[in-house]
Model the fold of this input.
Amino acid sequence: MSYKKSASLGAAISLVASLAIATLTATGASAADYRYWTFWTAGPVVQCSVAEGATEQSCEELPTATEWQFAQVGAQDIQLRDMSVLGWKFAISTPEGSEPPVEAPNFATLCPDMSNPVSDQFRVAVVIDFGATEIAPPGDTPPTPNKVGCVSVEVGQNAADALVLASSEVRADGGFVCGIDGYPTEECGAEVSASEAVAEEAATEEATTEVDVSEEAADEPTQPSSLPTWLWPLVGIAVIGALIAIIVGARRGRAGR
Done:
């Protein structure tokens, strides 16, 4: 089943309806690891849910955050506000958690061309992170680079609607989001081995290390020198030897007078 940009509001709600189920499955009693499109927010949004034993839905305002927050409900239960920031990442979710999108959740940085408010509409940044190559399903390669969609939604639309607007296609199965922009091509919420989860963690750490090293190198002042670093100790020894020779020679000269 495929959903295009022209999908109705009802279809958009349906296609992402089980993201909340995916969240519960990934942390359920089986303690299994699953590979799927995880859902994140960084506010400002309104999160709505029905508590266990309750009959009415309750909603909570989530303010703007500086870090990604793993969504506790499905995208259809996230009401949007102006300058909302949403994220989807294809990742492995373990009982310990999951890795968020690599892009920082800052609306002004993600959507600099949407600086002016739009009448009767909300501006929304949608980050689509295709994840690490190391965890791609067999035969698949994640698209590059990651995608940032800057969309305007009507008041009353939700996060599921924003995803439909920001992507070229959303593949769904019974309401569960299986693929975004053609990735992955067939897989849908597969259970994976612990080794694959470790591979994703290693890939994430390696990418973070590369960024840290490059930033440190950029901040390090350049030391002008015409000699290799390893040669300076030898130069120091030669200078000290020359000084000793001068002193010894001076003493001999005085003794010979």
About this structure: The chain has a mean pLDDT of 77. The CA atoms of residues 25 and 32 lie 8 Å apart.
